[in-house]
Design goal:
This protein has 204 residues and is an all-alpha fold. It is 74% helix and 0% strand. It has helices spanning 2-10, 13-16, 23-39, 47-69, 75-96, 101-124, 136-142, 149-172, 182-201. This is CDP-diacylglycerol--inositol 3-phosphatidyltransferase.
Length: 204
């Protein structure tokens, strides 16, 4: 028994812990919980909801590096991460889309994009950027760890602009779907074009 205990201590952490208790996956669970807390708040623009969704998004920058550093990358962790990402994106656009024709179009594009992501992951068992195939458009959006113009527009449409709208609406007691400016709409429209194109390109 003592020998087995000694051998167990020598095993790396990812072999001693069950997959569901790997630290990167624990971060993923916190992301899910904080996002659900935001989603179930009656007022999506409340300070509480905005901070919860912001925390969920911020933790997205830790689970991947943590998994790689601890040698705990897994299909489960990857899917947990990206299903959470896309559920968050869809909710953000849903609660901030304006009631006009552009808002409806933006929500339709977001629903299409996130639906594509859910279907793609359920079929292939991994996220878009982990495919060995790819093409010019998908590689453009995914290049340089997302720091390029196409990716900025994509992130603006799916995450950044909705967060700004929620924060502004909460601060000035307005409805999230009524908060916009011509510049925000223009940036959002360009981002929606990228989002739609990305949704189609992953199948090519």
């Amino acid at each position: 028994a003592a020998r087995r205990a000694t051998m167990a201590k020598k095993l790396p952490l990812h072999k001693r812990l069950p997959l569901l208790l790997w630290p990167p996956n624990l971060i993923g669970y916190v992301r899910v919980v904080t996002q659900l807390l935001a989603m179930f708040d009656p007022n999506p623009a409340s300070s509480y909801a905005v901070w919860m969704v912001t925390l969920s998004l911020a933790l997205d920058y830790f689970d991947g590096p943590c998994a790689r550093r601890m040698n705990m990358c897994s299909q489960f962790g990857d899917l947990l991460d990206h299903y959470t990402d896309h559920a968050t994106m869809l909710w953000l656009v849903y609660v901030t889309a304006s009631s006009g024709s552009w808002g409806r179009a933006n929500l339709a594009i977001s629903t299409f994009h996130n639906g594509v992501a859910f279907v793609y992951m359920s079929i292939y068992g991994h996220y878009f950027k982990h495919t060995k195939k790819g093409n010019f458009w998908t590689r453009t959006i995914e290049a340089n760890n997302y720091w390029n113009f196409a990716s900025i527009l994509y992130c603006a449409n799916c995450i950044l602009l909705p967060l700004i709208k929620l924060s502004f609406a909460g601060t000035y007691e307005k409805q999230p779907n009524a908060v916009t400016t011509p510049l925000i709409d223009l940036t959002d429209m360009l981002g929606a074009v990228v989002t739609f194109s990305y949704s189609v390109a992953v199948w090519l």
